[in-house]
Each structure stands twice: as structure tokens, then as C-alpha cells.
Specification:
This protein is mostly beta strands and 605 residues long. The chain folds into 7 domains: 8-77, Immunoglobulin-like (Sandwich), CATH 2.60.40; 89-150, Sandwich (Immunoglobulin-like); 161-220, Sandwich (Immunoglobulin-like); 228-292, Immunoglobulin-like (Sandwich), CATH 2.60.40.10; 305-367, Sandwich (Immunoglobulin-like), CATH 2.60.40.10; 374-444, Immunoglobulins (Immunoglobulin-like, Sandwich); 516-605, Sandwich (Immunoglobulin-like), CATH 2.60.40. 1% of the residues lie in helices and 50% in strands. It has 1 helix and 59 strands. The strands form 18 sheets. Strands 31, 33, 35, 36 and 37 form a 5-stranded mixed sheet that branches. It is rod-shaped and about 240 Å long. The chain starts with 7 loop residues before the first strand and ends with a strand.
Amino acid sequence: MNEIPVVSFTGLSAAYCEDASNVSLIGTPSGGTFAGPGIIGNSFSPVAATSGLHTIVYTYTDGSGCTNTSVQQVTVNDLPLPVITPSGASEICAGENITLDAGAGFASYLWSNGANGQSITVSAADDYSVTVTASAGCVGTSADVTVIVNSLPVVDLGSDTIVCIGSSVALDAGNPGLDYSWSTLEITQSVTVFTTGVYSVDVTDASGCVGTDDILVSVSTLLDPVVVADGPVIFCDGDSVTLDAGAGYLDYSWSNGSNDQFITVSTSGVFEVTVVDQFGCSGVDEEIVSILQLPNAVIQPTGPIVICSGDTIVLSASNTFASYEWSPGLQATPSIEVSEAGTYTVTVVDPNNGCEATSDAVLVTVNSSVPPTIVPSGATEFCAGESVSLSVAPGPYSSFLWSSGSTTPSIVVTQTGDYGVSVLDANGCLDTTLLGNPLSIQVWDPNPQVAEQGDSLVVVNGPFVQYQWYFNGVPIPGAIADFHIPTESGNFYVEVWDENDCQDGSSNIEYTFISGITDLGSLYDIKVYPNPTSNFFTLEVDFGKRISGTISLMDITGRQIITPENLSDVSSIRRTFNVEHLAKGVYQLRLVTQEGVAVKSVIRN
């Protein structure tokens, strides 16, 4: 008897998912056949077997015809089939969400948006599915569900706004034909409001989606603009101030016609501005501007002024101002002395209001002059009796005035002195040589002065180079000294020559010759001092005994200068004489007593 063969097979697991791939089966010994649900040749197909518990048999017959079998059971599990709730297409409004649920009982869930869990909550429009794994490890995927997100109605009530008292504003929710629900309980598309508050509206479309918006409406009081000045509103004439009505208004209307935010004002007045904002609200403010009077800055003389070179002119402003500033020079006094050409102004400050003003310019023109030149016709040093002609060198002169008083272009000079000339030119300018450049003329005039001294005739000035005495007009031979002793009565004079060889003769002296008269100068010490003198001199004599006589003072012509003084029974005399009032020259002091005569020459210088 033959043994039954030992039969087995491998390759078959205990369970498969319904969608698993075919698996190969290996029978031992080989060469047998497999039978059962899902057997395709030597393979097992879970798909073909379908779900359930299945028996797979491997049958082997050996060469002896002995047959044996190997039997294994296999389970094919159904695939899980999740169903998303809600299914199909679901609509939500923008901003809302929806929960998708794959059902319970699965070991794991993996949604198409990457989420895990039995359910997900979504707000985005899309197609959603879920893949689940059962406890046996089989995987199934749901059908897609569609989430549709409907847009909300767009509601725009605008920006928060302000309305003026007495005005209103219309609020429009737009979206004609939809349903409206206002916070005012109105259900129209637009509403009109008059009071301050927050107004809102819900707009619902056919999908039930609600759009909403709100707006703050403020009811404004009247505008309150404030005019601001960029400086003082009381200022000096010629200055200005800028008035600012403030920024942020839609419209400006000034009382001077301007429509700008700023105006520049240089005149007195009340300047009012009305402002209007974008809501039509208006307001008013004003500013008072006052103009201070400028000081009356006037230079006297007003000019134009023409002066001559070397001259000056005094320019003056009123002395009632608080301060002064001259230009050029910057002197701070009410008046200035001007000697230079230029344009002069003065700026003064009013002592009451502090306003400053500058005078009109005064033009000062300085005409130059041509200094005169004196031209002599010959020598400027000569003897008395000669002369020289002095002429003004040609120039633009219209008139002349010499220091001698002459008004001609030239003069003839015969006397010593400084000669000058003043000239007036075509511009009326005066120039002169008198101040610094006169012409000196020296006329040598010996002018001998003769006086009686005792029994002699003496030349009391000089000395001279040469003398010649004359008696009754006839030269006295040998009488060539500075004195002569007459021997008879008659007219005497002397002719002299000085070091310049100039000749001159003295005045005649009528001399009376007295025989036996004693010269008192030989008897007594007669003193006359000071001599020469310009004012006083003193006669002093000590006789040593009692005598009588007379004292007299005469000029060189013999004319009595003072009344003779009688002396009676005196032993000495001391007399002072005032000659300050007398002309310069030589005078004779004569003392006569019973003893004789004394003559002293006194020179008044």
C-alpha cells in the first residue's frame, strides 16, 4: 500500500482588503491544483473572491495515484465607504463656516485639505473629500462635497461725516432690490438723518448673506475761526502784518476781497474773514489793524545844495525826535556840518510811538575853486616913492577884492604891507590869498625924525648910512653927522640914506638960536624912562635947591601935546605921562627954569 502524500501550500494570508492585489500561491509538492473563490491559476485574487470568508484547497495526486489536499481559509474584508454630511453642494456666506462630518467608526481620517478627524470646519469655497482607514486597515475615500461661499452684499455708507446744525445727510446702503434693516428701524435703501449718532444698516441678499456698515454722523456747531497775526497789529506806516485765518477750511472770504488763507495788511481797518468747511459750515472772525504815523523827517535846507570847496553847510532835522542817524557818517545829532559832496539822509525815531522814518535825500555838491595867484610887475622891496603893480593871474574869476579895498584885477602898491586878494569865480565860490598866502611888500622909508636936544638938532631914529643937514633949504657943508649944532636961527632939516640906498628928508624944524642959554642937562641928572615906550614914561629930576619953571610935551612940529605944567619952588620933580593915546613917533619933553632949558626926545613905539 502506498503512502498518502503530505500536501501543503504557502503565500496565502489570513485576510485581505477587497481591493488588494493578487497573491501567488506555492503548493508542496508542486504540480497540484488550487481551488476556491478568487483562485486564478496559482494566484488568489481578493477582488475576484469578493468580501467574505473563503476556503482555498490545494489538491495533489502523486504518481501512485494517491491524492491528498491542503485547506486554508482566507477573509476578504469590504472597503470602508465614508459618506460626508452634508453631502452634495453646500452654500455659505463669506465670513461663515460649515462643518463636514465623515461619520464615526473608522480608525483614521485624512481630509483633502490635510485635516484629520471625523469632522472639519471650513470657510473656503472648494471640493472636499475624506479618506478613512477601517480597523482592518482597509482604506476608503468618500465622494466629493462642494462648499460654495457666496459674497456678502457690499455696503459702504462712506466715511464718518460732520453736518452743520440745521443740515441733514442722506445715507444710502446701495444694492438696489435687496432687504434692508437700519438701526433706525427703517427698511428702505436710504435714510436721512439730522442728529449726532452711529448709524448702521444690514443688507440681505437672496442667498441670505448679510452685508453691513456703519457711519458716525456728527452735528457740528458753527465754526470758530481765529485770525492770528504774525506780528503786532499796531505798527508804523510802511510796515505790514500777515493775518492767518487758519488752515483746513474749504473757502475763505475776507472783507478786503481776498479768498486766501493769508492776507498781508498795510493799512488801518477792521479785517473780517468768513470761513466755510467741506460740510458747508461757516464761521467769522476779525482783527483790527492800526497804523501809526511816521515822524516827518525833513532836512533843512531841502537842497539841492551847492557849496564851494572849503565851505560848510549845516543840515538840520527837527530837534523833537528821540534819536537821529545821519547817512553817511552815522552822526546822532539833530544837525550836522557838511563840507563834502554827497547824498545825505537822516533817519529819525518818533519819541511817542517809536516809529522810524528816513528823510528824502539832500544832494550836496561841492564846487572846487581856483586859488588866485598874485603876480607882481617888479621887485616887492623898494624905496618910498616907488611902486609895484600887483595883478591876479588869469583865471575863471568874475570879481576881485584886494585887501586894500580895490576891486580891480590889479593894483599899484606904494606902501609896506601884506597884500592879498579875494576872488569870486563863475560858480560863486570865494577864494583868497589873505589867509595863508598874502604877498608881502616892503617899502623902505628912512623917515628921519629930528628933535632939539639942548643946543643941538638930533636924528633920533636910524641909524642911517649917510646924513646931510640943510639950513633954509641949502646943504650945510660938512654937516653929515646924525646931529647938528645950529649957530643961528632958521629952518633946518636933514636928508638921510639907509642901507638900501633909499633917500628921505625930515620935516623942517624952525630953530631959534638963543645965546647964553644953559643946557640944564649939564647941571642936573635928568632921567626919562622907559624910553621908548608904548604907554607911560616918567620924568625924574633932583635940583638940589628950590627952583621954578615949566614942563611941556610937543610933537616934532612944535605943537603942544599937553598943557604946560608950572613948577613953583620945588627941589625935585617926578612926573608920569600917559602917551598911550598918541600916534607912534618922536616927541619932545621940554623943561625950562630960570637956569636954562633941557629937551629930551621921547619915542612912542
